[in-house]
Amino acid sequence: MASETTKSDHRNFVVREDDGEETSVFTGQTPRQAALKAARRLDAAESEQEATRESIRLRETSTKKLHLYEGWAWREQAPETKPDWMPEMITQANVSKEGIEHLDEL
């Protein structure tokens, strides 16, 4: 029997800047899911090929584990089957895991 996803399955990940400052919080079942949400906030290029890859560093709350990603975002036409509330142009994003660091202190 498959278990249903519950709110308790979600984990919080904090964006950690290079200087150690922690800014936005993203929720997801996995670090990659949170990284994709963070990547959608990057400056979007006109196409995926033109997108600038930027570093995304996520720390899971109440841990010292830092997930390192490279993320990029681009704008594209919404699908023809889009719902009425969706805009004509949407932001897409992708990430690539670069590794994990363990912090000595927060």
What is the rounded Rg? 16 Å
Q: Residue ranges: pLDDT <50 for 5 or more in a row?
A: none
Class derived from helix and strand content: mainly beta
Shape descriptor reads: globular
The percent range for strand residues is 35-45%
How would you name the oligomeric state of the polypeptide chains in this document? single chain
Strand order of the largest sheet: 2-1-3-4-5
Please explain how this structure is put together.
- With 106 residues, this protein is mainly beta.
- The chain has one domain.
- It is 8% helix and 44% strand.
- The protein is built from 1 helix and 5 strands.
- The protein has one helix at residues 31-39; strands at 11-16, 22-28, 54-60, 65-77, 89-102.
- The protein is globular and about 50 Å long.
In brief:
It contains 1 helix and 5 strands; from the N terminus they run E-E-H-E-E-E. It is mainly beta and 106 residues long.
Features:
single chain; 106 residues; mainly beta; five-stranded antiparallel sheet; 1 helix; 8% helix; 44% strand; globular
SSE diagram, text form:
Elements: E1 11-16, E2 22-28, H1 31-39, E3 54-60, E4 65-77, E5 89-102
Antiparallel strand pairs: 1-2, 1-3, 3-4, 4-5
